[in-house]
Amino acid sequence: CSTMPMPVWTFLESYDFSGKIILPFCTHEGSGFGHSLQDITSLCPTAILGKGLTIFGTTITDAEDDVKRWLNNC
Would the pTM count as exceeding 0.85? Predict the structure, then answer.
């Protein structure tokens, strides 16, 4: 809760993301990104952290337009 799942954490700490753009996204029920963005920045300090997308889990079935808009603006 409030951060990334451990498999994502392990993936980020296992590779060199220097100069790469990371576009975070998640579902949640009120916490948004929690402290995931800070954790990504700590794990990948030389990566570029782009604008992320959070979607309420209860609205995920209606989120297609939100996802398309986010991807088009990345």
Answer: yes
